[in-house]
Amino acid sequence: MYSKLSVSLALIGAITFSVPAFAQDYNHHEDSHAVASHDTHDHTDLERGLDVKAQIKETIEHHLADSYEFTITEGVGFPLPVILFDEGLKVFSSSKFHHGESVAEVDGNHYVLHHSKIYKTDASGDLSMDEHHHPTNVMPLDFSITKNVFMILVMAGFMLFLFQRVAKAYQSDQTPKKAGRFLEPIIIYIRDEIAIPNIGEKHYKKYMSYLLTVFFFIWFMNLVGMTPLGINVTGNIAITFSLALITFIITQISGNKHYWQHILWMPGIPVILKPVMAIIEILGLFIKPFSLMMRLYANMLAGHVVIMSIIGLIFVFGSWLIAPAFFGLTLVLSLLEVLVAALQAYIFTMLTALYFGSAVEEHEHH
Amino acid sequence: MDKLIHDFSFGLFIWQLLVFVALIFLLKKYAWKPILDAVNAREESIEGALKAAEKAREEMKSLQSDNEAILKEAREERERILKEARDMKNKIVVEAKEAASAEADKTVAAAKATIEAEKKAAVFELKQQAAALSIEVAEKVLGQELSDANKQAEMIDKIIDDVKFN
Amino acid sequence: MEIPEIIGAGLCAIGVGLGIGRIGGSAMEAIARQPEATAKIQTAMLIAAALIEGFGFAALFAK
Questions:
Q1: How far is the C-alpha of A284 from the C-alpha of A278, rounded, in Å?
Q2: Any residues with CB less than 8 A from the CB of A3 and at least 6 apart, and which?
Q3: Can you tell me the distance from the alpha carbon of A3 to that of A176, in angstroms, rounded to the nearest whole number?
Q4: What ipTM score was computed for the predicted complex, to two decimals?
Q5: Mutation choice for A interface testing from C20, C23, C51, C57 by most A CBs within 10 A
Q6: Three-state SS for A82?
Q7: B&C contacts, CB < 8 Å
Q8: Domain assignment of residue B25, yes or no
Q9: B6 lies in a domain?
Q10: A18-45 pLDDT, tens per residue?
Q11: Which of C5, C57, C63 should be substituted to probe chain B, the one whose Cβ sees the most B Cβ atoms within 10 Å?
Q12: Fewer CB within 10 Å, N side or C side of chain A?
C-alpha cells in the first residue's frame, strides 16, 4: 500500500512538472529565435503561427534526440565527456561545443555539432550539405558518454543497487522487505506467467536472468522517459536494436534440432513447398526481432511526440481558456503512457520468451 | 527508413550492448539468483508446511478413528463381560436350585425310608404284641375250654384244619 | 513525407487499426463467453495485437 501510494504520487508529480519544464525549454527556443528574427522583419499573425509551430517541432525533436550534455532545465545541467576515435583517442568535455554554437578544437582537429551529431570540419566550422540536407562531412567514430549512455549507466547502477538490496533482504528471513514487497510479485509474475508458459518448465530457468533484466530495464527506462528530464532512451533506435539483437542471438544460440528443421526443411508439407517455407521462415527469423525493435521504438517515440505536441498546442493557441483543457488531456495521455510503459516492457519480455520457447520447444508429436 | 538509419548512433548501440550484457550478468549474480532461490525455497517450505499440516490432519483423523475403534472394543468388552456375568448368575441360580431340590428330595426320601422303616418296625411290634396278646388270650381261652375234654378235641381238630388250609 | 507516402501510411494505419480492432472485439466476445479464461485470452490478444502492430510500424517506417 505504501509503495503504491508513493509510486502514484511520484507519477502525478512527474506529470505536473512536465508542463513547466516544457514551457521553460520552449521559452528558451523562442528567445533565441526571437533574437534572430526580430531585427530582420516584423511578423504577420500567420507567420507568427507558423513560427510557433516550427519552434514546437524543433523543441520536440530536440527532446527526442540524444544529446552531448545533460540538461535538467534551462541553464541547469552539466556537460558530458565526448570520446572520439579519430586518429587516436580524443576525450574532451562537451562544454567545448558551447551548446552546439561553436567549433571544438581538439589536438588540431576541429569538430562541430549538427542535429546532435558530431562532424569533423575545418577551423571555420562549415558543413557541406547534400540534397537531403544531410552533411557530407566525415563523422568520427563516436563513443561519447551522451545523455542516453549516461542514463543507461545510471539505470544500470540503480538496478544493481535496488535488486541487490532486494536480494539481501531475503537473507535474514524468507519474506520480502520494502521495495521487495512491490517488486517480488512482478518477478514471480514474469516467472509464472511469462517464462514458464512460453518457454516450458524444463528450460525456463536459464532465460530468467535475461527476461527479468530486460523487463525491468525497459520498464524503468520508459518510466524515466515520463519525467520532464527529456530522457528518451527506449525511444532510441540504437537501444531497441541492441535489445532486439540480444534476443535474436540468444534465440539462435539456443535453437535445437527441431527448431532448425522447422525453419530449413519444414516437416509435414509437400516437398515442393519446403523451399518456399524455408524462405518465409528465414525471413521471419529476422522480422521477429525487427518488429520487437520497431514496436518498442515507435511506441515510446509516438508517446513522447503525442504528449509534447499536445503541450505544444497550449502555446499555439496561447489562450488561458484552452490551456486547462490541454493540460487535462496531457494528464490523461500521461496516464495512458504510464500504462504503455509497462505494457511495452511486458510485450517485449513476453515475445522474447515466446521466441525462446519456439527455439527450445520439443516436438514429440513428429 | 533512411532517417532511422541516419539517426542510428553506433556509439550508443555499442554502449548499450556492453552495459546491458554486463548488467545481465551482474544482476544474475547479485540479484536474480538469490531472489529466485529465496522465492523457490520459500515456496517449497510453504508447500512442505502445507503437506505436513495435511499429514497431521490425516494422522489426527486416523487417531480419532483408532480411538473410536478402541472405545467400541471397550464397549463390546463390557457388554461381553456383563453378559458373561449374567449368564454366570443364571447358571449359579439354576445350579443352586437344582442342588436344593435334590437335597430336599433326598431328605424326603430319607424321611420316607425312615417312616417306612419305623412303620415296618411298628407293624412288626404290633404284630408281635398282637400275637402275644392273642396267645395270652388264647391261653386264657384255652385254659377255660380245655377243662372240657370234648371241647379240647374239637378245638384241636379245628386248629389242625386251619393249619392245613394255611 | 510526400503525398503518396502519407496516403500509404494512412492506409497502413487503417489496416492495422482494423486488425487490432478485430482482435480486441473477438477477445471481448471470447471473454464474455468464457470469463474464467480471461487471463489466457488477454495474453493471446496482446501477443496477436503486438505482432500486427509490429508490422504496422515496420510498414510506416519503411518509406
A1: 10
A2: A178, A179, A181, A182
A3: 13
A4: 0.79
A5: C57
A6: strand
A7: 4
A8: yes
A9: no
A10: 444 444 444 444 444 443 444 444 445 5
A11: C63
A12: N
